[in-house]
Each structure stands twice: as C-alpha cells, then as structure tokens.
Amino acid sequence: MIDVRRLGSFVAVGAVGFAVDAGVLLSLAPLLGPYGARLVSFAVAVTATWLLNRLVTFSDRRSRRKFAEWGRYVSTQALGALTNLAIYAGSIAVVPAFADMLIIPLAFGSAGGLIVNYCLAHWVAFPATDRR
User: Fold this and answer.
1) How many domains are there within the chain?
2) How far apart are CA 68 and CA 35, in angstroms?
3) What is the per-residue pLDDT across 81-127, written as a single tens digit (0 to 9) for each?
4) What's the domain range around 70?
5) E-strand spans in the chain?
6) Which of these, 124, 103, 132, 129, lies nearest to 53 by C-alpha position?
C-alpha cells in the first residue's frame, strides 16, 4: 500500500529538485552549453533530492552506508528519467497529433517517471531493511 504522506513528501522534494535542476542548468548553459550544463544540473539536482529524501521522506529508512545509498538513489532516478523519456516519445509515436500538444506526452512521461522513481526509491534506494 502506498503511504500518501510519504508520496506527497516525495513529490514536494521532486519540485525542489526541479527548481535546483533548472537553476543550475540556466546558470551554466552559457559556459558549458546546453548538454554539458544538463549533465551538471542533473548531478546537482539528484544529489539535492537524495539529501532531502534521506532527511525528510525516508528519514526512518536512511542507511549509515551513505555512498551506497546515494548510488542506489542515482540509479533509480536514472531509470525514472529513462521511463519518462520513453513514455514521452512513445506517446508521440502512437499519437502523432501529440507532437503539436507536447504538454500531453510531457504529463504522461512525468507521471510514469514519478511512479517509477517513487517505487524504486521506496524499495531499492531506501529499503526498510537497510539501516546499516
């Protein structure tokens, strides 16, 4: 069963992560270009959301093995990002009219990525049994 309070916290942390991601991306794009800046902004944002989720959303599950936990978290977030992109691209491929209404496939991709990210964070990055 999904803990609605924990999911709400995860979504709020994700919103903060989006703001961090956007701020770093927009600040560094003139120096590093759009792709170099994106690599840095993702790394900073995923680390920020890991820290916030560790301290707030999954505070009862955080591990003493911080680096291992961070590695699991980064991996889960990357899978969520790939899910988001796949759903976005798949939606446009299945319904070509969505190419003129990008907000629809963006919403589908975001929802799918959120579900994957939350489930993997809950069961893989911050498992209930890993408090070493």
Assistant:
1) 1
2) 27
3) 999 999 999 999 999 999 998 889 988 999 999 999 999 999 999 99
4) 4-125
5) none
6) 124
